[in-house]
Amino acid sequence: TATCAKLACGAAIRATEDVLLGKCKNAFALIRPPGHHAEPSKSMGYCHINNVAVAVELMLRRKQAKRVLIVDWDVHHGNGTQKHFWNNPDCLYFSVHRFDGGAFYPFSKDGDLDQIGGPNAMGRTVNVPWPFGGFDDGDYVYVWEMLLIPIAKEFSPDIVVVSCGFDCQEDDKTGGCFVSPTGFAYLTKLLMDPAIAGGKLVLVMEGG
């Protein structure tokens, strides 16, 4: 497990760095195990190393990026990623997830509407918590067009990194949502807008 987790994290780092350096326009890190539940002090939910958090943190420390937008569309809230960047104004974490009042995994209130970032980064955490299952393409596209895209353009990141979980897709019985392959394609296309990070986009596999 440790070897696989380190290889997965290395792939996420390489994909993010290659897009930032212009070696490729976009990248998709098809990796396992996933990462977004892994917190700074513990592993959770099949996640041992937070691949996205490590990759983004490294790009910021190396000054290869000044600002990074992380979009998490996995059906579960990325509690680990949120905690890592909670007080960092250089990273904006945006998550759309099933919440059920905190009764859906990871079973906490961290993904609620009022969780907006620490004292140095207020507004840099944006949660869209679905109150139950059943949300579909139209719901996700509405959130993208009315909330995420305007915020992304205002934040003006150097790159967009997606915690790309597919457990909100229509055939996943655990997630209970109904995003189609066409829906995922359209959400991705919206994030590749040249007005947002010049179209620099990295997808990093999570769950589902």
UniProtKB/TrEMBL annotation:
GO MF annotation, one: histone deacetylase activity, hydrolytic mechanism
Primary localization: nucleus
Superkingdom: Eukaryota
Listed InterPro entries: HDACs, His_deacetylse_dom, His_deacetylse_dom_sf, Ureohydrolase_dom_sf
Protein localization: Nucleus
GO cellular component terms listed in the entry, alphabetical order: histone deacetylase complex
Domain Histone deacetylase: 2-208
The protein's Enzyme Commission number: 3.5.1.98
Entry keyword annotation includes Nucleus: yes
Example of a GO biological process term: epigenetic regulation of gene expression
Stored Pfam families: Hist_deacetyl (PF00850)
Gene3D superfamilies xrefs: Histone deacetylase domain
Keywords assigned: Chromatin regulator, Hydrolase, Nucleus, Repressor, Transcription, Transcription regulation
SUPFAM superfamilies the UniProt entry points to: Arginase/deacetylase
Family matches, as PANTHER family: HISTONE DEACETYLASE, HISTONE DEACETYLASE HDAC1-RELATED
Family: Belongs to the histone deacetylase family. HD type 2 subfamily.
Descriptive protein name: histone deacetylase
Organism, as annotated: Rhizoclosmatium globosum
